[in-house]
TrEMBL record:
EF-hand domain ranges (all copies): 17-52
Name assigned to this protein: Sorcin
Localisation per UniProt entry: Cytoplasm; Endomembrane system
A GO cellular component entry from the record: endomembrane system
Length: 115
């Protein structure tokens, strides 16, 4: 991670390992072997990754990343990357770890636009 804008071989190997891990995770929750996950499968996968989300949040995520209620592996990766980045941004500001933060509008925009 040298921030050069290119991937060296070691960076590629690291990325490849992460993508393969996500692929195995995706396949393990694709209960019907359709090559996609539906809302219920996504909810279980996200819970397994430690995300504790309301049913309404899972529905919003499904609407954002699915086509006809089905999420492909590519969209699953995009979803996971976005959720992880948003969660990290939130946790940095949730210093008391209570699940609540107080954002100024500008700080919120910077956080969201950096993802």
């Amino acid at each position: 991670r040298d921030m050069s804008g290119t991937l060296g071989f070691n960076e590629f190997k690291e990325l490849w390992a992460v993508v393969n891990g996500w692929k195995q995770h995706f396949v393990s929750f694709d209960n019907d072997s359709s090559g996609t996950v539906d809302r219920q499968e996504l909810e279980k996968a996200l819970m397994n990754m430690g995300f504790r989300l309301s049913p309404q949040a899972v529905t919003a995520i499904t609407r954002r990343y699915s086509t006809r209620g089905k999420i492909t592996f590519d969209d699953y990766i995009a979803c996971c990357v976005k959720l992880r980045a948003l969660t990290e941004c939130f946790r940095r500001r949730d210093t008391s770890q209570q699940g609540f933060v107080n954002f100024q509008y500008d700080d919120f925009i910077q956080c969201v636009m950096s993802i």
